[in-house]
Amino acid sequence: MADAVAFDSGALPNLPMQVKAKTLLAMMITAPLGIVAAMIDAYGFNNALRNYAFENPSIIVWWVAVLSTPHIIASLVTFADREYLHHYAKPLKKAAIISVILGFCIPLVVGFILKPPYTDMDLGHIAHYGADVSMVIAAFYTTYHNLQQQYGVGLMLMKQKPEFIHQLWKWITIVPAGFIFLGMQYNHEGLVWDMWPRVVAMAVTTMIVACIVGGIIIRQYLKRPDHSKIGLMYFCANAAMLLISLGLCVKGYVMIAMLMPRVIHDLTAYWIYMVHDENRNADKMRNPFYAPFKKLGIGPAILCVPLSFVLAYIMLNASREAYIISAFVFSLNYMHYYLESIIWKRGTPHRQYVPFT
Predict the structure, then answer these.
(1) Residue 178 and residue 99: Cα distance in Å, rounded?
(2) Euclidean distance between the first and final Cα of the chain, in Å?
(3) What is d(CA 35, CA 20) in angstroms, rounded to the nearest whole number?
(4) I want to staple 323 with a disulfide (CB 3.0 to 4.6 A). Which of 75, 127, 250, 281 is the partner?
(5) Domains in the chain: how many in total?
(6) Helix, strand, or coil (residue 222)
């Protein structure tokens, strides 16, 4: 048995950059580093980080926004391309509508319904009453999006079509992970704190079932004569990431448990967008964001990350109103989630510029 030179990702031939499977696998080292970070906090700083995150749960949301927004901007930069704008015209319109409804309209409507009667409030205070709805939507949509990316890449590296057992394994892990994500945001509140042991118990139970299903997947996969060793390793690494996250939650390191898969997700996404942007603009500069740097010999792969951070910083500092920034970040995430469910399907222009080897 030997791994193929290239994975059938539907990409065009002879592109200058490739997404190397070994690089994606190396990014999974972030998961065990989460254990190291927890141990350093426990034995070096007397659980200072764990206690601070528990007393200030909003800091977790802040870090998620800081980490997610730049890579979302990097994905949106790819649409500064006439051919892409024409091809994705309908999905872009739908994404805009979805983001406005989920990020702005629903929180404001719910907040208006829940606010105390006969009181005059500005939009910021009204949005505060609808913030819980935003958090519930974000918890499950974000969990689904993050894990779906990891599982999608894993199936491609395994050269495996998503059969029923893979869908079963996916949802067994996504649903409890969503409840854990949501519980992390509210574990400082009395009711949620009282229910937290039940949430963890449910997650542990479903994870045991997931391990059994995962074992069946591995057993069936090893029977294939063309099975990919690195694909199998990536599948196991994703399973280990979930187990480590759950273990960190049980021990109270909710911030590390949330940020660790977030970092893996962002590193993976950035690497894919760097490769895409370099290949898309290799023979002809199609993106105006990168065009000014062509004469300097600075390619899109180098500019992708710093450009996204600069644009994200500008956007996140465009207003001093907390509710506007919060709604903007939520809306941006929802737009991104929907668009990525479209642009990375087989046969799309984006997919054609990202070869995997």
Answers:
(1) 20
(2) 17
(3) 26
(4) 127
(5) 1
(6) helix
CB proximity list for 71: less than 8 A, separation 6 or greater: 266, 269, 270, 273, 308
Mean pLDDT of 115-122: 60
Opening angle at CA 117, ends 323 and 324, nearest 5: 10
Residue 200 lies in a domain: no
Helix and strand counts by DSSP (H, E) for the chain: 16, 0
HEC profile of 255-274: HHHHHHHHHHHHHHHHHHHH
- Side-chain half-sphere of 86: how many Cα atoms within 13 Å? 2
Global pTM reads 0.87
Token reading at 258: 């949330």
Determine the 3-state secondary structure of 1 from DSSP. Answer: coil
- Which residues, 6+ apart, have CB-to-CB distance to 151 below 8 Å? 166, 170, 238
Residue 199 within any structural domain of the chain:
no
Residue 12 belongs to a domain: no
**Displacement of CA 31 from its chain's centroid (Å):** 15
Range of the domain at 321: 25-41+62-156+246-351
C-beta atoms surrounding 92 within 10 Å = 18
d(CA 302, CA 340): 22
Q: Quick check: 145 and 337 in contact, CB under 8 A? A: yes
Q: What is the pLDDT of residues 180-231, one digit of tens each?
A: 776 666 655 544 556 667 777 888 888 889 899 999 999 999 988 888 899 9
In this structure, is residue 306 part of a structural domain? Answer: yes
Amino acid at site 1? M
Closest by Cα among 352, 304, 342 to 93: 342
Please report the pLDDT score of residue 5 as a whole number: 45
Q: Which residue has the tokens 């479903």?
A: 206
Is the separation of the CB atoms in 87 and 349 below 8 Å? yes
Beta strands, E only, 169-278 = none
Scanning the structure block, which residue is given the tokens 């937290």?
196
The string of pLDDT tens digits covering residues 90-118 is 999 999 999 999 888 887 777 777 666 65
Q: Are 192 and 183 in contact (CB under 8 A)?
A: yes
301-320 residues labelled b (16+ CB within 10 A) or e (exposed): bebbbebbbebbeebbeeee
